[in-house]
Amino acid sequence: MNKIVIVGAGQAAGWAVHTLRTQGYDGEIHVVSNEDSVFYERPPLSKQVLSKEATVESLNLFTAEQLDEFSVIWHKPDLAVNIDKFAKTVQLKSGKTLSYDKLLIATGSRARIPVAQWSELKNVYTMRDIQDCQNLAEQFKTAQNIAVIGGGWIGLEIAATARKQGKNVEIFEYGSRLCARSVSPEVSIFLKNLHEDAGTKIHLNATQLNLNEVESQKIEVQNVDSGTHIFDCVVVGAGAQIAKELATAASLDVKDGIVVNEYGQSSDPDIYAAGDVAIHPSLGYCIQSWANAQNQAISAAKSMLGDLTPYQDIPWLWSDQYQCNIQILGTYQPEQTSQVVIRKTNSTQQCFFYLNEKNQLINMIAVNEAKLVKLAKRWLASAKELDPQQLQDLDFNLMKLK
Ligand SMILES: Cc1cc2nc3c(=O)[nH]c(=O)nc-3n(C[C@H](O)[C@H](O)[C@H](O)COP(=O)(O)OP(=O)(O)OC[C@H]3O[C@@H](n4cnc5c(N)ncnc54)[C@H](O)[C@@H]3O)c2cc1C
What we know:
The chain is about 25% helix and about 25% strand. The protein is an alpha/beta fold and about 400 residues long. The site of flavin-adenine dinucleotide (FAD) has 37 residues, from α1, α7 and β19.
């Protein structure tokens, strides 16, 4: 094998390249990226970079020396527009055709805009890449009244960042609670209180929103339930659209994302996928998280080289909002949950444990409890049977259950 092509240059692509080189692969690596900035991590965009506590440079996954050592052949900015799996080629928008021995699709996802007309309005923003973050940061210099559409993780982080800068913030969420897809009702209530206590107004069940440009480039948000509101800008954080179109057009097995086995291999043995765009092999749906993008890509890259390394990671992601570091371990599975245990040290330090009928942990939300998350990763991996009383009892030191 002498030629690997990677489409996308985000978190997954970066770790795939790092792994290929550290595992001794010395053939060609071609990377196609439609972004100019490459191999950077996105989580700080809605947090420290937007609030100017961190620089854009701090997002880089690798040093300049490492990048040199990788000796990647770059095709950027350029767009992969077609895969011919029979000829084993990728066609680029620029007209180039790249042949490959193995191909990794790491195209991630894009910010979803629920109503196409919204993207034509000035002062309506999304948050996916460095440019989006810089545009919003520029707007934040003067904007005082901010609407956030979407009460998921990214929307809540942007709301917290804006509020910390003293702005008036209102959140419009389509559903009846915040982060409903990934957490239980009690965690949604915790999040709602966190934001309302900080002074943010939350409109739930905002199922019919109309956005219009009004005088002085302001945006009018019409919400059937609460009437008309005027904002300096609107940030749409309404979920992600998986960038799976190349795989679909190439007739790979594609559902919500690209179907891959535990080695990252798609229905074509020479085409791999990792990160947001690939379905988690044991869960059966896409996981949009930093750790998933990194670790699924490491496994796929090793497997490409013949070192079959199954990817079986338990989902883990985090969010930072105000004074809270919130970590989510496992997935929210209401039908498997037979008991919820809340261990509350104080209002900003608590854990929500979700146990199945055998008292094994299936999901955990930890607020400012990083050490407990490390421990719980072991409980989850070993399917340890837990005592709900001990989990709840603040006088019991859970570290005894190492
Ligand atoms: C604002 C923000 C905050 C986040 N915060 C957290 C967090 O706190 N914790 C957490 O765990 N996760 C967080 N995430 C999620 C995490 O960043 C993503 O899961 C991760 O970036 C996915 O990596 P990826 O490589 O799969 O995709 P991406 O990082 O999206 O990279 C894909 C790249 O491929 C490019 N591309 C797509 N199609 C083509 C094509 N046809 N040709 C060429 N290039 C193409 C895209 O433009 C992009 O540059 C956050 C994401 C965002 C946007």
